[in-house]
Amino acid sequence: MEKKRLYILGIFFKITGYILYGIGAIGIVSAGYKVTRVGFSLELLFWAVSLLLVFIFCLAIIKIGHYLILREKKITVKYKATIFSESEADNTVLYLRSFTDDFITSKTQPAYQIRGVDLPQLTTEEEILASEFNRFGKFISAANPQTELPNAGAIQINFESREWRERIKYLMKTSAFVLVRIGEGEHLKWEIDQAMELVPPKKLLFLIPFNKDIYVNFKQRLKLDHDIEFPNLDKTVFFGIASISAIIYFDENFGSKVSICHDAGYRSSASKPFKPILRYALKPIYEQIGLCWRSPSIPKQKYVPVIFFSYLVGLCLVFALSDLSIFFSFYMVIPLHIPLLFGILGLYRTIPN
User: Can you give the pLDDT at residue 74?
Assistant: First the structure.
């Protein structure tokens, strides 16, 4: 019964959230456009104030829609945890982190700015981690007992306080990868020590956060406790879009290697900027374990100039082959221009990523 309730509630929040977010974004564009052009004379004061109120109302709708969308994702994660079985442990990626870092990885950054209003992203950093590592197995982590709903991203498993250490050690031994976000805390320190002892080096990955002091302290402790040398990172590495600056991975002899999270260039995305960055950072790890790596897809909005230019070229060809009076005739605009544009859009949909 609980599983069914979570499933239905998640669908309701998802549909409602996306509808409100879309209505709010459209309203912001429309009302904002009018507000900037309506004069505040006496006869137009009523309309100006009305449009301003619509603008504020749409902004509130966006916030509510954004909240509901993330709420649905949290409910979905909780639902997935109820149907997860440890018999699947050999097909998982175990994610270890300090619970205090959940606040960082669960936030969403602004994606677009319309009329001075930031439209937030609909995907968190942890969700992007989950989407990339789900290629290796189900992305799981320990649930924070202090929170009612888990963050969107990893399937969070509830462990009893008396048995969590044994279950974590079991998952370390059976998971396809163990991913550790470097941080602070006694529990995380214990997990890192266990991972260094139990996990084969090629299956162990460390996420380096944008905090040089945390990395330096961690590097010194690993050298002292496990005699493993981590690379020195330039200070310019600790700046970027997401909260992760690099990934540390190992060869079969625990020789450490680093993959820096670089800018993705023309494959960067406003809605999910960290996704292509992480995909590039994972490339040497794919190569080390012998899996096929695929470059991140080019965001579709990057094709808009190409489509527009192709459309103009098509118009020029039609113009060169047509009589001017026929081409610019009102009755010929639809039969000539619209099918051409739809043809180009159809070709665009077939372009591989």
Answer: 84
Record the pTM: 0.74
Enclosing domain of residue 143: 84-289
Residue 206 is assigned to a structural domain of this protein: yes
At 57-92, the pLDDT tens digits run 777 777 888 788 888 888 888 888 877 776 666 788
Whether 119 has a pLDDT exceeding 50, the answer reads: yes
The 3-class SS string of 29-73 reads HHHHHHHCCCCCCHHHHHHHHHHHHHHHHHHHHHHHHHHHHHHHH
- The tokens for 247 are 């990934």
CA 247 to chain centre: 17
> Which residues on adjacent β-strands are paired with residue 113?
118
- CATH number, domain at 263? 3.40.50
Residue 294 belongs to some domain of the structure: no
Quick one: 121 and 194 in the same domain? Answer: yes
Q: Are residues 156 and 36 in the same domain?
A: no
Of how many residues is the chain composed? 353
**Residues 102 and 221 placed together within one structural domain of the fold:** yes
pLDDT digits (tens, 9 = 90+) for 286-300: 888 888 888 877 776
How many Å apart are CA 219 and CA 230, to the nearest integer?
Answer: 6
Strand pairing category for 117-120 and 110-114:
antiparallel
CA atoms of 182 and 142, how far apart (whole Å): 15
Beta bridge partners of 79: none
Could you give the CA distance from residue 273 to residue 276 in angstroms, rounded to a whole number?
7
Q: How many CB atoms lie within 10 A of CB 34?
A: 16
Q: Please, which pLDDT band fits residue 190 given cuts at 50, 70 and 90?
A: very high
Domains held by the chain: number: 3
Q: Which of 142, 152, 162 is nearest to 96 (CA)?
A: 142
